[in-house]
């Protein structure tokens, strides 16, 4: 039985699309109840996947023909596949909302936005109840949300590529 690899292939990473919706802080906050629920489930599914993957690896390392061990390996393999499918569905749900699942271990989701003319993300952490940080798309550093962003006017128009800005 072949088990899924722990690391994503580069083909999978390249195939991810960037959502076309652009959020301001208030519109991102309006979606938090739904996004928070989806992200929490994604964290739970990924945590279970990692646990099952480790257990399957331990059992496979035994290299035994004991039917009970083999049965557990097959059961774990089925659970791993179910979790992978559910995780993909959760990522797609977020994508359909215009949100990117940035880190399914720490529970980070990014709402695409524009900061100083560059693509950035308003970052939601599922342990927190609110969006408290942001980052540029090509940088890992999380920065605190400035207070003046709360008072800004919502973004209301759509550009020629269908992006809401």
TrEMBL record:
Q: Which InterPro entries match?
A: DUF2203
Q: Which domain of life is it from?
A: Bacteria
Instruction: Specify one Pfam family.
Output: DUF2203
Q: What is this protein called?
A: DUF2203 family protein
Native source species? Kolteria novifilia
